[in-house]
Each structure stands twice: as structure tokens, then as C-alpha cells.
What we know:
- The chain has nine helices and six strands, in the order αββααβαααβββααα.
- With 224 residues, it is mainly alpha-helical.
- A two-stranded antiparallel ribbon has the order 1-2.
Amino acid sequence: MKTAGTSVEMALEPFCAAPGHRVVEATPAIISEYGVIGARRGPANLDKTGWASHLSAWDTRKLAGPKVWNNYERIAVIRNPFDKAVSWFFWANRFKPVSDADRVSAFRAFLKDKHDKGYFKSAADVDFKACHIRGLPVIHRYLKMEELRSEVDELAAGWGMAPGAIKLPATKTNVRAKDKLPVAAYFDQASIDILRRGQDWIFRAGRYAHTPHVVERASARLVA
């Protein structure tokens, strides 16, 4: 969640559809001889195929079948956990905005609540389930949101395509539009420790520093 995954899905969608296919953000699942496009946004709530956004790795393997699962490259997008956590908080509160004066304390309470309820690495942890089966990592290649344009170009180069050949749309970028605080301002030692433990696997996968003080907002650097 909150890693520009929708943008990457939309960028790669033309490879899974008939020539001339029009890419839109909200779509039902489309299954054809060209591949599978998972349902996104509103249509995902009505999906009957099983192919919808934020699938677990277990469900993806089951739906894709062993041949595809074992022979295709598995890609996931990650984001610095400190920046991602703030974005997650804003998304969770998008319909009940928190005042500037209360935002930092509300964020810390939000993370503490997730930790106290055992969210991280549990059956409810969407990110962990998308990248692990029975606690073991199954992703071959992680793309870092902070460097997404160059990461996608590198992916395309492996397919014999020129830089910029894969268009990367920017979606859901206005949720934190009014947030002027630096990422580090949201954290105290307790909230830092919660993420270091709960999302240690993301820190390792992206080789991210264990401090929020050098973190910038990835969404501000997302280039279409």
C-alpha cells in the first residue's frame, strides 16, 4: 500500500491487453489471451474473478497457477517505511482530516495502535502478505518508489526498450497536498522503533537507513 503500485500496474497494463487498449485507473478485472489485468478502485469491490488489487502472494500463486508462478518474474514496489507510514496515516484519515496541531500526536497514536493490535507481519498486513508466503519472501525484484522512473526504465531495458518507453502515470497524489511537515517531524523514538521492528523486511529490501531524518517524500519526486 502507498507505494505507487497503482501507477506501476497501469504502466505495465498494456503488456497484458490487446493492442489499442485504453488504460484507466478504475477498472474491472480483464482476463484475455494477452494476460490478466486486476480490478482496481471501485470495480475491485464488485470483483468475482479473484483478480483484484492488493492480492496476497498466496492468492496470486493460486490464481496464476504453478507454471506462471514459477516462470514469471515477480515484482513489487516498496517505499521508505518512514515516508510510507505517514502516507498510510493520511490515507486512513482522508475522510476525517486531523488538524495541524494534532497531526503529529495522532500519527504516533495511529502507529502505536497498529503495533498494539499486532498488525505488522500478521494476516492483516497487506504488504507483508503480498511479498511473503508462510513468512518466506517470494519477490524476485523490488522497485523503490523513490527511484521509480529509473527503476522502470531499467526494467524496460531488460526487455529491449528505450528509456521512457513505459509511461508512468501519477495517481492518488493529492492526499498529502496540504502537509508541509518534513517526514522526520512525525517521529519520536517509540514510533521509529515500531517501524524498525514491524517493517524490518522493507528496510532490508530497500537498504533504507533506520532513521527518518534523511527521508524526503517520494511522491514529490514521482515523474510521469
